[in-house]
Amino acid sequence: MSSKDNLIAAQKAGMLRGTSFIPAPLAARLAANECSVLTRDAMSRKPLLIGFGILGALCAVPIMTALSNTKDVWVAFALIMCALIIVSGYTSINAVVKAELFPANVRALGVGFPYAIAVSIFGGTAEYVALDFKNYGHQEWFYWYVSICIALSLLLYITMNDTRTYSKIED
Questions:
Q1: Residue 108 pLDDT exceeds 60
Q2: 108 and 96 in contact (C-beta within 8 Å)?
Q3: What is the CATH number of domain 21-159?
Q4: Contact 54, 154 (CB under 8 A)
Q5: Largest CA distance in the chain
């Protein structure tokens, strides 16, 4: 069997359809992140974080619910893209904001320690929380858990100083 015949057989089996779909979310994610960076430079960091907090808190449950119920790959793609665009409001600027919150002499500790704590608490337990909810027959509660965590971060974004104005990057 020639390589052309193998390619045709793989296409008929649908193997390439799935693998060609993989780069599309990555490219869209990079574009969304770049748009968020341009938005950040045009306005300010705090409104972008607040936008992420509002959209993330309001849209996490509907997006995750729809994603768990869809059978269509394109609907799943659109839902994931919506979620990634919302999350890019945070991911595109979080490093800059964290760096601007602390003077240089304590920046590594000021950024690293809270990050390690947050990742340990939320990232380290997310799988267990999700699986416990699923074992209790309420996997959709995890969607609410994510939404509540984002809403709590929104409270922080609303009350913090705008780092563009009150930056400690030069200190």
A1: yes
A2: no
A3: 1.20.1250.20
A4: yes
A5: 68
Q: What is the pLDDT of residue 54?
A: 96
CB 77 within 8 A of CB 21: yes
Token pair, residue 46, equals: 């705090």
Kindly tell me the burial class for residue 164, based on how many C-beta atoms sit within 10 Å of its own C-beta (0-12, 13-18, 19 or more).
middle
Angle at 85 between CA 38 and CA 39, to 5 degrees: 15
CA 88, CA 105: separation in Å to the nearest integer? 29
Residue 90 near residue 49, CB atoms below 8 Å: yes
CA distance 15 to 45: 43
Gap between the Cα atoms of 119 and 151, Å rounded: 17
- Hey, where are the domains in the chain? 21-159
- For the full predicted model, state whether its pTM sits above 0.85: no
DSSP 137: T
**Span of 40-49, 52-61, 64-73, 140-149 with lowest mean pLDDT:** 40-49
Structure tokens at 99: 């760096």
The predicted pLDDT at position 59 comes to 96
State the Cα–Cα distance between residues 163 and 168, nearest whole angstrom: 8
